[in-house]
Design goal:
Shape: globular
Strand order of the largest sheet: 1-2-3
Strand content: under 5%
Organism: Streptosporangium carneum
Mean pLDDT: 87
Transmembrane segments: 12-33, 53-78, 85-103, 123-140
Keywords: Membrane, Transmembrane, Transmembrane helix
Low-confidence stretches: 143-150
Radius of gyration: 17 Å
Pfam family, one: DUF4383
Number of strands: 3
Distance between the termini: 28 Å
Protein name: Membrane protein
Structural class: mainly alpha
Largest sheet: 3 strands, antiparallel
Length: 150
């Protein structure tokens, strides 16, 4: 008997983590696609000098794209268990809120902006952080009551 959850047996929090992970994975891949990433020739390994923009809006670098890929793989793998999925969403959300604060506090033209981040990235990180934490907490609350209760 397989212990790997199927789509039908995944809890809502596991499904949310799987979807979020898949989106991060897709975003990481798209960051390396010329055309989807404008000014692709200006893509740098890291740092604020990378002028490549995912979807023409979000500043990216090779490091930034690799982080998205790793975050996506983590989400997909952690979605296999209820606790892993919840932790991915909540802890990942906290990481994105910290990244949002970091982006607000650093000088964007300094070496501290090594990811790199622009204004659009900062606000996306706020939305991701709040959204992931909300998904992790709200969807795991519903599951915590048990499958036989309403």
């Amino acid at each position: 008997m397989s212990t790997t959850p199927t789509r039908a047996t995944r809890s809502p929090v596991q499904l949310a983590a799987l979807i979020v992970g898949a989106v991060f994975l897709l975003v990481g891949v798209l960051g390396f696609v010329p055309g989807v990433t404008t000014d692709y020739g200006a893509l740098e390994v890291a740092g604020h000098h990378s002028e490549a923009l995912l979807l023409g809006v979000f500043q990216v670098s090779i490091l930034h794209n690799v982080v998205h890929l790793l975050f996506g793989v983590a989400g997909i793998l952690l979605s296999r268990t209820w606790a892993g999925a919840r932790n991915f969403l909540v802890v990942g959300g906290v990481i994105y809120l910290l990244l949002w604060l970091y982006g607000l506090l650093i000088d964007r033209d300094s070496a501290a902006n090594f990811v790199p981040l622009n204004n659009a990235d900062n606000w996306l990180h706020l939305v991701l952080g709040v959204g992931m934490i909300a998904l992790g907490l709200l969807l795991s609350r519903r599951t915590a009551v048990g499958p036989h209760r309403r």
